[in-house]
Amino acid sequence: MEVLFHNVRELVALAESENKQISEIMIEQEMLITERTREEIMTQMTRNLTVMEEAVERGLKGVHSVTGLTGGDAVLLQKYIATGKSLAGDLLLDAVSKAVATNEVNAAMGTICATPTAGSAGVVPGTLFAVKNKLNPTKEQMIRYLFTSGAFGFVVANNASISGAAGGCQAEVGSAAAMAAAAIVEMAGGTPQQSAHAFSISLKNMLGLVCDPVAGLVEVPCVKRNAMGAANAIVAADMALAGVTSRIPTDEVIDAMYRIGRTMPSALRETGQGGLAATPTGRALEAKIFGGAVLQSE
Amino acid sequence: MKYTSVFDIIGPVMIGPSSSHTAGAARIGRVARDLFGGQPKWAKIHLYGSFAETYKGHGTDVAIIGGLLDYDTFDERIKTAFADAEKANLTYEFIPETAHTEHPNTARLVIGDDETEMSMVGISIGGGSIEIIELNGFPLRLSGGMPAILVVHDDRAGCIAAVANCLAGYNINIGHMEVSRKERGNMALMVIEVDQNIDKSILDEMSTLPNITKVTRIKN
C-alpha cells in the first residue's frame, strides 16, 4: 500500500517541502488510501468532533460509573476554576477537567470517540476544547486539530503500539498526550517541526508508564492519567512554541517507547495484576466489585 | 501497515470503556457473525491474556455477544446484549484460558447452529482495530476494516483464476489476496480484500464455480 509518510521525519519533510500543514498531509493521505473525497472525510471527522463535544458536555454535568470508582471530578474541577484560585492557570485546569469529563463518560459506558484508544480518549478533546477558548479557532481548524493528532498517532500505531495490553499506558495516554501536543502547536500557528518537537517532549515524559488498572477497569488510575496527559500536552506544546527542541528525534522516541513496551512485564500491561492494581487497596476494591470470582482466577 | 486510516486513530465512536476490550471485542463478534453467514444459535468463547484477566470489567463479554447480534461499536444495545441474546435464542459460554498466546488480547470463538459450526480466532490490536488470524484451522490475516470475501475451496489448479475472473466480470478490484491451505491437494482458503461491498448475487455465482465449497463475505 502506498502511503505519503511512514514516520515523523517523512511527515515533517513533506509538510515543509510542500508548505502545508500536517493536518493537510493527513487529509491527503486519507483521500489517497481510502479513495474517498475530501468532503466525505471531513464530514466523518466532523461527526467524531461532535461525539467528543457531547461527551465533554455530559461529563461536565457529572456522571458516575456503575462501580462508583470514578465520576464527579470534572464537576469539582470546574467549580474550583470558577473560584479563581487555580494555581496552574485556568486554561490548563480547564483542559484537565475536560479530559476527566470524557473519561468519566467512558468509564460509565457512555459514547466516546477513541483517540487513539478509549482509555486515553480524554486527552485530545480535553486539550482541544480548552485551547479553543484562547485561540478561537474556526470549526475547520478544530477538525484539523484531529487530523494533526491522527497523523502522529498513525505513525505511533504502525511503528510502535497504541495498545496498553501490548505497550503499557505510555502507548495509550503517552501517545494521546504527544498527539495532542503536536496538534496544539499547529493550531497555535507553530511549524510542523515544532509540532514534532512538542510530540517528542511530551512522549519522552510518558516513557515507561505502566498499565495497571484496578480490578482491570478503565477507571483507576486511567481517568487521572488522562488529566495529567492533558496537562503534559499543553506544557510540551508551550515549550516547543517557545523554541525548545528535543535532542532525540521523534522517530527514535517512538522506537524507544516501543522497545520499553516490549520489555515491560505482562503484569504491567493491562492484566490488572501489578502496579496500583496489586496494592492492598487495589485488591480490596477488586474484591468488593467482583466478589471472590476474580480473585480465584488469579 | 497495521493501521491504514486516520479513523483507526481518531475513532471509532464507541460505547466505553475500552477500545481494545470493548469496541475491538464487538468487532470480533460481528466479523464472526458475518463469516458464519448470520446469527449462530450457540457460542463458546475462549479468552486469552488480558482478555481473560479483565473481560468482566471491560464489558468484553457483552461486547462480543453484541457483535454476534450484529451491533456496531457505538450501538447502545451492547449494554443489554446478554438479555437480547436470550430473546434471540443465542446461548453462550465464556471460558477464560491460561494458555499463553502471541497477542495479549486474543479470543477464539466457536459458534454454530443445528447444522454447522465455525471456529475463528481474533486479536484486538489496540484502538478498536482487530485482525482475524485463524478460521477453521486456516491461518490468515484479515483486518475486518475492508470488505472481504472468503472462499473455501479444493486445492486444485484454476480455482483462484476462476474466482478472480468472476470478480473481474463485475469490475471489482482486488486490494489484497491471500491463499492458505492445511495440506497440499486438500482444502484451501482464499481471503480477498476488495474496495467495495459485494452483492450476495455475486457470492452465489461464485459458489457455483467448480471446486468451490463455501463463499462468505465481510461487509464494511
From TrEMBL, chain A:
Its cofactor is [4Fe-4S] cluster. Pathway: Carbohydrate biosynthesis; gluconeogenesis. The keyword 4Fe-4S applies. Keywords: 4Fe-4S, Gluconeogenesis, Iron, Iron-sulfur, Lyase, Metal-binding. One of its GO terms (biological process) is gluconeogenesis. Its EC number is 4.3.1.17. Residues 18-277 form the Serine dehydratase-like alpha subunit domain. GO terms for molecular function: 4 iron, 4 sulfur cluster binding; L-serine ammonia-lyase activity; metal ion binding. NCBIfam families: sda_alpha. PANTHER family: L-SERINE DEHYDRATASE, L-SERINE DEHYDRATASE 1. Belongs to the iron-sulfur dependent L-serine dehydratase family. This is L-serine dehydratase. It comes from Viridibacillus arvi.
From TrEMBL, chain B:
CDD domains: ACT_LSD (cd04903). Residues 148-220 form the ACT domain. The keyword Repressor does not apply. It catalyses: L-serine = pyruvate + NH4(+). The keyword Lipoprotein does not apply. Signal peptide: none annotated. SUPFAM superfamilies: ACT-like (SSF55021), Serine metabolism enzymes domain (SSF143548). Its cofactor is [4Fe-4S] cluster. It comes from the Bacteria. Keywords: 4Fe-4S, Gluconeogenesis, Iron, Iron-sulfur, Lyase, Metal-binding. Pathway: Carbohydrate biosynthesis; gluconeogenesis. Pfam families: ACT, SDH_beta. GO terms for molecular function: 4 iron, 4 sulfur cluster binding; L-serine ammonia-lyase activity; metal ion binding. One of its GO terms (biological process) is gluconeogenesis. Belongs to the iron-sulfur dependent L-serine dehydratase family. This is L-serine deaminase. It comes from Viridibacillus arvi. The lineage of its organism: Bacteria, Bacillati, Bacillota, Bacilli, Bacillales.
